[in-house]
């Protein structure tokens, strides 16, 4: 455990060292339900979250983000450490990186690492992207897993947009746990640096579904 934290701390330091004089941005949010890939992480209850991001003009970035969770055991917190590189070429946006999901007070050792890639493109008011993520040990116990998702967002004007997304989770050693998730959301800004989001989500095979709302604020930059 300590070795993993040390490795990620060193990686975070390596990413932030050349970008210290660039952009630093923070964020805080309150949501009625923390949903991750179609599954509630709070037992359909509210969550408070926040984090910081460091970004360079060259496209390097690193960050840390935390949220309250409720797994119906002693786990009450998620802490994510991540870093990557984003760039544009040929009209497309590219993003590759890695993220470490840590649950400091989990009794079951659910920490895991994931690598990801994203391809995006805008067509006027429409933005589209596709994401692929892989973990060699999802939630520290399920084994290798993949997550693929794609979605599009449409700007409606006045700072408001609507989006839809579909994702699929696949597990190499536990195919019975495979599922798909869907979501549709409406988001916008109330005033400077304060955003809102209302979203419907659904997970297949009798999984979670419902509507949740989020209010967030960013600062710095």
Write the layout of secondary structure elements.
Layout: H1 2-16, E1 23-31, E2 35-36, E3 39-40, E4 47-55, E5 60-68, E6 77-89, E7 92-102, E8 112-123, E9 126-138, E10 143-157, E11 160-171, E12 179-191, E13 194-203, E14 209-220
What is this entry, summarized?
Helix content is 7%, strand content 64%. It is mostly beta strands and 221 residues long.
Description of the molecule:
By secondary structure, this protein is mostly beta strands. The chain has one domain (2-220): Porin. 7% of the residues lie in helices and 64% in strands. It has one helix and 14 strands; from the N terminus they run H-E-E-E-E-E-E-E-E-E-E-E-E-E-E. It has one helix at 2-16; strands at 23-31, 35-36, 39-40, 47-55, 60-68, 77-89, 92-102, 112-123, 126-138, 143-157, 160-171, 179-191, 194-203, 209-220. The protein has a twelve-stranded antiparallel barrel with strand order 1-4-5-6-7-8-9-10-11-12-13-14. Strands 2-3 form a two-stranded antiparallel ribbon. The protein is globular. The two termini are 33 Å apart.
Largest sheet: 12 strands, antiparallel, barrel
| SS field, number of helical segments | 1
Q: What's the β-strand tally?
A: 14
Helix/strand order: HEEEEEEEEEEEEEE
Mean of the pLDDT scores?
Answer: 90
Query: Do you know the CATH architecture?
Result: Beta Barrel
Q: Which residues form runs of ≥5 with pLDDT under 50?
A: 1-12
Structural class: mainly beta
**Overall number of structural domains:** 1
């Amino acid at each position: 455990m300590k070795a993993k934290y040390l490795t990620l701390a060193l990686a975070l330091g390596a990413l932030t060292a050349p970008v210290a004089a660039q952009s630093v941005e923070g964020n805080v949010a309150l949501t009625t339900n923390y949903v991750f890939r179609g599954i509630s992480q709070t037992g359909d209850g509210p969550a408070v979250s926040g984090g910081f991001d460091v970004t360079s003009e060259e496209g390097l970035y690193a960050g840390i983000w935390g949220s309250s969770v409720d797994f119906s055991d002693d786990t009450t917190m998620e802490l994510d450490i991540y870093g990557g590189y984003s760039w544009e070429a040929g009209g497309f946006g590219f993003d590759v990186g890695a993220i470490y999901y840590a649950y400091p007070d989990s009794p079951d050792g659910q920490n895991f690492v994931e690598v990801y890639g994203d391809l995006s493109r805008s067509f006027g008011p429409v933005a589209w992207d596709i994401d692929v993520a892989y973990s060699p040990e999802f939630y520290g116990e399920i084994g290798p897993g993949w997550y693929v998702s794609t979605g599009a967002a449409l700007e409606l004007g006045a700072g408001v947009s609507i989006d839809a997304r579909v994702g699929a989770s696949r597990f190499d050693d536990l195919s019975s746990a495979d599922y798909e998730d869907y979501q549709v959301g409406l988001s916008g800004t109330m005033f400077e640096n304060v955003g809102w989001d209302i979203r419907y989500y659904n997970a297949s095979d009798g999984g979670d579904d419902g509507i949740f709302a989020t209010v967030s604020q960013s600062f710095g930059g």
